[in-house]
TrEMBL record, chain A:
<dbReference type="GO" id="GO:0015833">
    <property type="term" value="P:peptide transport"/>
</dbReference>
<dbReference type="GO" id="GO:0030288">
    <property type="term" value="C:outer membrane-bounded periplasmic space"/>
</dbReference>
<keyword id="KW-0812">Transmembrane</keyword>
<dbReference type="InterPro" id="IPR000914">
    <property type="entry name" value="SBP_5_dom"/>
</dbReference>
<keyword id="KW-0472">Membrane</keyword>
<dbReference type="InterPro" id="IPR006311">
    <property type="entry name" value="TAT_signal"/>
</dbReference>
<feature type="transmembrane region" description="Helical">
    <location>
        <begin position="27"/>
        <end position="46"/>
    </location>
</feature>
<protein>
    <submittedName>
        <fullName>Peptide/nickel transport system substrate-binding protein</fullName>
    </submittedName>
</protein>
<dbReference type="GO" id="GO:1904680">
    <property type="term" value="F:peptide transmembrane transporter activity"/>
</dbReference>
Automatic annotation (TrEMBL), chain B:
<feature type="transmembrane region" description="Helical">
    <location>
        <begin position="12"/>
        <end position="30"/>
    </location>
</feature>
<keyword id="KW-1003">Cell membrane</keyword>
<feature type="transmembrane region" description="Helical">
    <location>
        <begin position="102"/>
        <end position="125"/>
    </location>
</feature>
<feature type="transmembrane region" description="Helical">
    <location>
        <begin position="284"/>
        <end position="309"/>
    </location>
</feature>
<dbReference type="GO" id="GO:0005886">
    <property type="term" value="C:plasma membrane"/>
</dbReference>
<dbReference type="InterPro" id="IPR045621">
    <property type="entry name" value="BPD_transp_1_N"/>
</dbReference>
<keyword id="KW-0472">Membrane</keyword>
<feature type="domain" description="ABC transmembrane type-1">
    <location>
        <begin position="98"/>
        <end position="303"/>
    </location>
</feature>
<dbReference type="InterPro" id="IPR000515">
    <property type="entry name" value="MetI-like"/>
</dbReference>
Length: 536, 318
């Protein structure tokens, strides 16, 4: 390569980086191809990447969904307050990069044996807890074991059931052995429960102190009210531009929006969709409307009449006008679903599956074939499933009338909906949070023997593929298998998936973010505090 | 004086029995809520094994009566137990919250009580004038609007349009007292607007009621100026009903502030109670409700004692 072409390539790379077209890792990769040493490339990335973040300031972050009764226990993480705080003061083995690829957090690198049964993670020797203690293999092992074993109350226990052993190979190497091969293990480690906490030395972790190895350390705070954090000098990754982070719990949507408008906070984690259009008119506020992996599903029990007939299921899937629902119920803050539970921002999403559209005539003829003309079904729903969930079902019922289907909307109490209605009523509406990989999602809710197989769907080919794909390290083969599984879900499964809901959050004046934001959670994969900055 | 002490003792004894009954009712009402605490803590993501493990850890595998008696045993020696969800002691969990609520209630009361009594006397003096009408219409309008609506109106004008006060009342430990008053002004003002009408109108009604009495007639006939007739002659006899309505409103300032707390994101006890109910955290719910019940009992007692003290006929019974 001549010096001239070298320079051209470099300039192009730098431009792409500035626009945010390529991730840091692809940048490093291309730069290496261009013959630049790693350290030079790192420096180049730093200078050219999007708008040169400046350091300083206090990021006041208005967060919804926080309770007084929340705790620091990673096993019970459930509210946004806990999740956003966890990504701000703690670290994980791996993380989701702004371009939704997998990247390193505490683990510098990882590799598997060919059968994907044993994974070795090399830890970053620079990682340290806020107390000053370095992060060692023991901390990682005890943090993961917190979610294993009979006594564990962790909500993430199911993700680690295949793990048979976790051992240390020196201070900075962790080896995880699995009963069955799992090519997704590094992805699983991004799950918000698997935060790394300091070990007590006796196999347990000290989660109570709130110590972590993340970008910011907790100075003071109280669950359900607010948290004051300051930068952890010596954090092992790039970023953490703000000097301080003040996380304020604002559960009331109106209080949240007013606080943003009056400048009492710099960012709010959720805005009400009804006022989305109004807020977008305010020149001082930038609204981010980012597709997510979270979905609304309407599961039908495949073993219950009339849903045991695939023609009836398909007719019900054809009788919904997703565009109208997204426009009227979600105010545009949703991504159209195609009846398979994998969103465009998730790994292995097949981009070539034809979109299912509203087709009442075809639905009608399918029902005629099945001898179910004038079908009557009940759908159970509660307002807590999704803002406007009841309206959504009423609208669906209206749309289905064109196909001769009578849907009776049963409004259930929000309290106890997931213990008394979900999995029990044959047709209901459910909201799902995003899972890191298709394997996790499918194993959780579509596998024949899954406790949460909400459609009671039994498909031999699907279950066979699911097990095969799990241990397949060849990316192309795997993608092909997931594509086939998605087709099966779409055409045979019991799930009507109207849409994936978007993350909708807003930033006040002066808060800058990179071109790409992670879609694993709202506010840049819950990492706004360490990835965003104030305009200089 | 001895009679008053006797009355206080008797009423306090009765109050304790009422609190006991309330605690039983609350416990079984929490039991009646669908779903249980383990389900509420682990959320939608719970598996049956998880739930069983957590229930055992929280002691939920014991029968309800045993759990209630266990709580009661602690409560009689003022140990209200630990929050089932967080494991922290209940007094620690709600202590600061309750202090915040008391602060806001005091702030509002310090403004509302003098303002409404002075206004009440003034409108009684100037009854049926324009001033009387305007004051009545204004206060009735504010009491008829739901608190959250009043709160939003105040936020719209004072915070968004004029930028005079902050829209959210989040507190910080290092705030100066003046900062604190500034930051919590809008929630306090909302409460003032809500309770003023009631107290003002009661003052007005109580005074006007007395104006037809012969002794007021006498005072007028001997040439006492109208303001003196009301302040010196009518008001002392009107204290009993006024004190009653003031006590009722003070209790409301403490127990009825949930909506105001939500609108202004004020870290008070109402929000803690709502959180605890949604998590079925019985000890915290119980403690909050008992605080509310005790507030009503004590303020009612104070009102009765106040009424006796201001009325010589009750103070010196024949």
């Amino acid at each position: 390569m001549t010096k001239k072409t070298d320079q051209v390539l470099l300039d192009r790379l730098a431009d792409a980086a500035r626009r945010g077209d390529i991730s840091r890792r692809s940048f490093m990769h291309f730069a290496a191809a261009a013959g630049i040493t790693a350290s030079a490339a790192t420096g180049l990335w730093g200078t050219s990447a999007a708008a040169n973040p400046s350091r300083g300031g206090t990021f006041r972050w208005g967060v919804h969904d926080g309770n007084t009764s929340d705790t620091h226990d990673p096993g019970t993480y459930v509210t946004r307050q806990m999740i956003f705080l966890a990504h701000t003061h703690r670290s994980y083995l791996t993380l989701i990069e702004p371009d939704n690829t997998l990247g390193p957090d505490i683990a510098l690198s990882w590799e598997a044996t060919p059968d994907a049964k044993q994974w070795t993670f090399e830890l970053n020797p620079n990682a340290s807890f806020h107390s000053g203690k370095p992060v060692t293999s023991q901390d990682v092992i005890d943090s993961l074991n917190h979610h294993r074993g009979d006594a564990s109350t962790s909500a993430a226990k199911a993700l680690l059931t295949d793990v048979t052993d976790i051992t240390a190979d020196g201070d900075h190497t962790v080896v995880i052995t699995l009963a069955r091969g799992n090519a997704d293990l590094p992805w699983l480690m991004t799950d918000y429960h698997f935060a790394i906490c300091p070990s007590n030395g006796d196999g347990t972790i000290n989660w109570q102190s709130g110590d972590g190895s993340g970008p910011y350390k907790i100075d003071s705070g109280e669950f359900g009210i607010q948290w004051a954090l300051s930068r952890h000098d010596g954090w092992h990754l790039d970023g953490a531009y703000f000097d301080q982070v003040s996380m304020i719990i604002l559960n009331d949507p109106n209080a949240r929006q007013t606080a943003l408008v009056t400048g009492d906070v710099d960012c709010v984690s959720l805005i009400e969709l009804k006022t989305l259009a109004l807020l977008q008119r305010n020149p001082d506020i930038s609204v981010d409307n980012i597709p997510s992996g979270g979905a609304i599903t309407m599961p039908m029990h495949c073993d219950t009449v009339p849903f045991d007939d695939v023609r009836v299921r398909t007719a019900l899937k054809l009788a919904i006008d997703r565009d109208e629902i997204i426009e009227k119920i979600s105010f545009g803050a949703a991504t159209k679903g195609n009846d398979f539970h994998l969103s465009p921002v998730q790994p292995y999403w097949p981009d070539d599956i034809p979109q299912r559209e509203y087709d009442p005539d075809q639905a009608k003829s399918l029902l005629r074939e099945a001898g179910q003309e004038g079908l009557r079904v009940n759908i159970s729903v509660a307002e807590s499933v999704y803002t406007g969930a009841v309206d959504m079902c009423v609208l669906y019922a209206e749309q289905a009338k064109a196909a001769g289907i009578n849907i009776n909307v049963v409004r259930e109490p929000s309290d106890g909906y997931y213990s008394d209605v979900w999995l029990k009523k044959p047709f209901s509406a459910v909201s799902w949070g995003a899972r890191p990989t298709p394997d996790v999602m499918f194993t959780l809710a579509y596998k024949d023997d899954a406790a949460w197989n909400e459609t009671r769907w039994q498909n031999e080919r699907f279950n066979e593929l699911l097990l095969q794909a799990k241990a397949e390290l060849d990316q192309n083969l795997r993608a092909e298998m997931y594509r086939e599984m998605c087709m099966l879900m779409r055409d045979d499964g019991g799930t009507l998936l109207p849409f994936f809901n978007n993350w909708v959050y807003a930033r006040g004046k002066g808060v800058e973010r990179p071109e790409n934001v992670a879609a694993s959670w709202g506010c840049d994969g819950a990492r706004a505090a360490s990835r965003w900055w104030f305009a200089a | 004086m001895g009679d008053i002490l006797g009355l206080v003792a008797k009423r306090l004894g009765l109050g304790l029995i009422i609190l006991l009954v309330i605690s039983v009712i609350i416990f079984f009402m929490v039991e009646l809520l669908p779903g249980d605490i383990a389900q509420a803590v682990l959320g939608q993501g719970a598996t049956p094994e998880n739930l069983a493990a957590l229930r055992k850890e929280m002691g939920l595998d014991q029968p309800a009566v045993v759990r209630y008696l266990g709580w009661l045993k602690g409560a009689v020696v003022f140990d209200f137990g630990n929050s089932i969800v967080t494991g922290a002691s209940v007094s620690e969990t709600i202590g600061e919250r309750f202090a915040n609520t008391l602060f806001l209630a005091t702030y509002a009361a310090v403004i509302a009580v003098p303002v409404s009594i002075v206004l009440g006397v003034l409108v009684a003096l100037l009854r049926n004038s324009i001033f009387d009408r305007v004051a009545n219409v204004a206060t009735l309008t504010s009491i008829s609007s739901p608190e959250f609506f009043l709160g939003y109106i105040l936020i719209l004008y004072f915070a968004v349009n004029w930028g005079m006060f902050p829209a959210i009342a989040s507190l910080r430990a290092d705030m100066s007292f003046v900062d604190l008053l500034h930051r919590t002004f809008l929630p306090a003002l909302t409460l003032v607007l809500v309770v003023t009408a009631h107290m003002m109108r009661m003052t007005r009604a109580a005074i006007i009621n007395l104006l037809a009495s012969p002794y007021i007639e006498m005072a007028r006939l001997k040439g006492t100026p109208p303001w003196k007739v009301i302040v010196r002659h009518a008001l002392p006899n009107a204290w009993a009903p006024i004190i009653n309505v003031v006590a009722l409103n003070l209790a409301y300032l403490i127990t009825g502030v949930v909506l105001v707390e939500v609108v202004f994101v004020y870290p008070g006890i109402g929000q803690a109670l709502v959180d605890a109910v949604s998590k079925r955290d019985f000890p915290v719910v119980q403690a909050c409700c008992l605080i509310f019940a005790a507030t009503f009992i004590l303020l009612n007692l104070a009102a009765d004692v106040g009424a006796i003290l201001t009325n010589p006929r009750l103070r010196h019974p024949k």
